[in-house]
Amino acid sequence: MNPTQPLLACLLAAQLGAQTSPEALRTASERLRTEAFRTHGAYEDLAWLCDRVGNRLSGSPQLDQAIAWAQARLKAAGLVNVHAEPVLVPHWVRGRESAELLLPTPTRLNILGLGGSVGTPEGGLTADVAVVGSFDELDKLGETVKGKIVLFDVPYTGYGHTVVYRHDGAAKAARYGAVAALVRSVGPVSLDTPHTGAMDYNPAFPKIPTAAVTIEASTQMRRMQQRGERVQMKLEMGAKTLPDAPSANVVAEIRGSEKPEEVIILSGHLDSWDVGQGAQDDGAGTVIAMEAARLIQSLGLKPRRTIRVVLWTNEENGLRGGVAYRDAHRAEFKNLIAAIESDSGSERVRAFGLELLKATPEAKATARASLNAFELVMKPFSVSLRLGHSGADVSPMVREGVPGIGMEHAATHYFDVHHTHADTFDKIEKDDLAHNAAALATFAFALAQSDVRFQ
Ligand SMILES: [Zn+2]
Fold first, then answer.
1. Catalytic residue among 291, 315, 316, 408
2. Ligand 1: distance of its center to the CA of 283 in Å?
3. Which end of the chain is less congested by CB atoms within 10 angstroms, N or C?
4. DSSP track, 236-287
């Protein structure tokens, strides 16, 4: 036996608070894991959400249905303070859309209008296409793209790198008089699957319709242009923005037995794009958060601190849920121990990344070191505990100093299907969801039993 082990156990117990020994935590973790794999509650919930509600864009009746469903599920699980906190959200509708290559080879193309885009004039628009590979290339073409459709054919080099073309492409093209902007789908692979997503206009330039084309179509148009062929397209989009719509964040709690005012948030976003089923983005995060709390509750574990589930609205096209929550809960920030978000799909969690945006380097180092207290209990889940990124919905709070924690999932195939018609339930691995829910439940429970503070 290693003679330092009892000493380490003592130190750990001190860091975790006197109430819960490492042994007790390990037992709790094993029970949580066993229960997760016995019931597969997250998987069952996600199947229902995907099959019976479907995709859930802000302003849609499906999102309202999901909000009602989640509250009912959390109430049935015995959580308390289950309620919806109202939020007004943008209400964009896609309408009918189509694209047809007229020259040089007549072809129907699969497209997805980008969220927030305006529509085309009634009957659509027909124009030549100018293919560019970067904003620099567009700048070189300058006013020669006037009256044309600009296609940004930019290879995927990582979501963060490439998404700027989806987000800003229309504004940049409108600056030079383009009549529409297309973007090669922001993803690593395609099975003729366009990827939608959010975009923004620049108020200094006209709003022009904008859509994603598939990787197949985008690279084809580039080849045509390189051969000197005239590329002409007809684009029709019925997209429009309606007045803001009522929506809500869903909130539910397990009240802390000793320090109820100290709160650990477990979260995912309930809204999705209006294609596919929003299974990976972010149905998975939603059911992982729900299930983690349900497991703790169903086993009769009594967390010392409050565990609060928050299911965000409007992550995809406005982040109004995260902003409204920040504004309504500012008084609690000093007792918000961590805001944990799962929003990178359903594959196995690889790390819990702690994000501290207002901490000094010294305070960050101390917070990083305090994560070590949880290493032993998290060991069976093969996750690392480290500094990292939290999540979009918690980011408004994190920017004001609340410790954010992101569940970083493997995401090997996440961006293949994210924001596409292919983000559907069949691609969810049952055991991964149970593993992730148990990992989150264990981490949240250990954090609730401890006196650790990251700020
Ligand atoms: Zn998401």
1. 315
2. 9
3. N
4. EE--EEEEEEEEEEEEEEE--SSEEEEEEEEEEE----SSTT-IIIIIHHHH
